[in-house]
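Troubleshooting: if your tokenizer reports a length mismatch, compare against these two reference records.
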Amino acid sequence: MKKRTNATKLLATVALLTVTLYPCTSGSASPRGTRTGMFGLARGDVARINVANVGDPNVGPIVVEMQFLDSMGNLVATRSETLTPGRAAFFDAPFDIFHTEGNRVETRAVIMSQGPPGLDKNLTISIEVFDAEAEHTIYMVPIRNLVA
């Protein structure tokens, strides 16, 4: 089992506290979205976007697009989900998809939604980084809501 040192845990905590959100702007009200600040993965780590539609069951679905970008802003992976109220989804980006020779990589997540205006307030979103080998979460950052 891989062990994390106190210094590594401290760095993960600092990353948790420093992740910031930036609105995605496209010149129109749809799609709406958000971007995280940069965060790091070490070899063996997995980045995960968690999203749930916690809205009224009598309201229609929300289409959510989840993306991971590399440090240069290039799209690394993308996934789209249609979430009816009460449904959740996640999207994983293991370290290896970033195709790097080193032991660390920087990434950021982009989450966008499409649907009637106002429905995106029903989404709960979080970013999680976990150690795949030890099967435990290193840190998780909740994201309150999407920006129009």
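Reference record two:
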Amino acid sequence: MRAGDLIYLARARAGITQAELGERAGVAQNAVSRIERGQIDPGFATVVALVRACGFEPQMSLAAHDSSYVRDVRRRLALTPRERLDIAVDLAQATQRAALAGAVASHSREKTA
């Protein structure tokens, strides 16, 4: 997760504006905006200060690197917009069929009970 995404998430959960966050943390509103948009990469201390100004305590942990999705992500990024749409439609239709099958099975069980 990018620092800007974390700041945005904390601010949204706190229900405050960029201006309010900036005032609480002593940072200009336009700097908060630029951080959230990824135009500024703030230091760790700034991230902590902004998250705390939203009323949260940042926590961090280490996890093993997992690159198991890299190949799939690269393959999907190479698809055309039309190919992506076709896949999304296929998945939506499959989900709809599965939900319908589950509803039919549930109805059949109710009738036999």
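Descriptive notes for reference record two:
- The mean pLDDT is 91.
- The CA atoms of residues 10 and 51 lie 6 Å apart.
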